[in-house]
Amino acid sequence: MIYVRLGLLYFKGNIISFKYNMDVVNEVLEKSAKEAEKYKPITVDKHLDLEYDLGTLLAVDNNEFDRELLSKNKNDYLLSLTRDNTQLLLNKIWELPTERVEDIIVVKLPPQRTSLPRMRPVPRPKPLTKWQQFAKEKGIQKKKKPKLSWDDQLQKWVPLYGFKRASAQKEKDWLLEVPQNADPLEDQFVKRNESKNEKIAKNELQRLRNIARARKVKIPRVGITNSDVSTAKDLQTAVTVAKASTASLGKFQNKLPKEKEARGIAPITPGATRKRKLLPVSADVEKK
Known about the structure:
3-stranded antiparallel β-sheet; extended; 9 strands
């Protein structure tokens, strides 16, 4: 006698007996139907084939919309249409030759056929600064400096830059020697701080000059930079100061028609005297 059990199917000799548990079968069928609803088929039928540009991952659908479905449920219809077109695009991508790179399947896309427009022009490379241009001409290559250096005086590793560098420098320079040609009463710590601030200001000025040179803006070597456009107040101030700069302090200068004198420029006007404000005097004080 041979007994073999396959699921719910029993074999006993030449007699085959079927025992089905309908509840279990229905449960399995419902579960498989729900799983099938989650995963839609990868085959999509279209009246007209899509136009593909796999280089830019672009697919163009020239089929007409279903007006009835579009009017009934617009969002669901557009979502389903987008899903189908995306599926067709992915099917075309999987038709391309593939290769494996570090356990990853990679597809090499063909060259693009569609020229996509840009909202802004292609960014231009930044112009070189004065030092970068000099280093390029001389063949100077930038070397990566180490972060720490051994200090024989402190007998420890000191950072070359950063906030800990300043604290290490203070610990090292707790005493400064006065040079022979220097004033013995001059504070060397203050002098060192002033020299450091001058270097910072010089670097900032050089940075601004590099920006002006990159933008092709002409700036004077000394003095205050002039504005491109002068306002009416600036012109009035310039005319008033120019007239007052004569030998007669502008007393014999003729006025132009509808000319107005600038106000509030007494500190920069030659020979201008400020009016002295008198203190208010009450009637009782005046009688006394």
